[in-house]
Structures are given as C-alpha cells and as structure tokens.
Specification:
Elements lengths: L1 H11 L19 H8 L3 E11 L2 E6 L4 E6 L18 E7 L7 E8 L2
Parallel strand pairs: 3-5
Antiparallel strand pairs: 1-2, 1-4, 2-3, 4-5
Length: 113
C-alpha cells in the first residue's frame, strides 16, 4: 500500500491542482444556479405548425426556419388540441431551451390574428 501511495505522489509531483492532465477542471466553475437561470429564459417565436405527433410539433417560422417543439405538461394547450392548429393558423409559441437540445419546450401557444 505504501508503495502505491509513494508512486502516486511521484506521478503527481509536477502537476498543480488545476492542471487538466491531472483530470481536474482547469478553470473556475460557475454555480449551478447561474447555469439553470441562464437556460430558463422564456423566448417566443411566431409561425405556422406544419406537423404534429402526440405532444410534439414542428413550427415553420415566418422566415422559413423549421423549429421542433415538445409541449410542456404545464402548457394550457393539450396534445389532442395540436392537430387543429395545423390548418395554417398563425401562432406564437413561448418556449424554453436551446443549445444542444433536440427540441425546445413549448410553455404556451397562442393563436394570432
């Protein structure tokens, strides 16, 4: 056991605590609450729903971008209401998420006139 401890000390003698080669994070980390607050900002987008499957739908924005969404269980719209919105109705979707997610989380869908 003492031999293992001594070998470990020799192997790490030239490495500092923040050295990436030592398997540690090389820089300071932000608190987790900052990460969550940064991602939780509500945004909205306008467009037309062109595809619906269960609680998922695809929105084509006014500038032609296609955006996939998952309907939040807290949204005022139910999954069974989504197919009726595929008739070319213009909607505004308030959502959360972004980054590397497969789909954004739709928190609120509002029909626009």
């Amino acid at each position: 056991m003492q031999q293992l401890v001594a070998a470990d000390r020799r192997a790490t003698a030239g490495l500092q605590a923040g050295d990436a080669r030592h398997g540690r994070n090389p820089g300071p980390r932000r608190p987790l609450t900052d990460d969550i607050a940064g991602r939780a900002r509500m945004r909205s987008v306008r467009g037309v729903i062109d595809a619906v499957q269960e609680g998922r739908f695809r929105l084509v924005t006014e500038d032609g971008h296609v955006v996939p969404f998952v309907l939040s269980h807290k949204a005022g719209t139910e999954p069974q209401d989504l197919p009726q919105l595929r008739n070319g109705t213009h909607v505004r979707v308030d959502f959360e998420g972004g980054g590397h997610l497969v789909a954004l989380l739709a928190r609120h869908i509002e029909i626009e006139e």
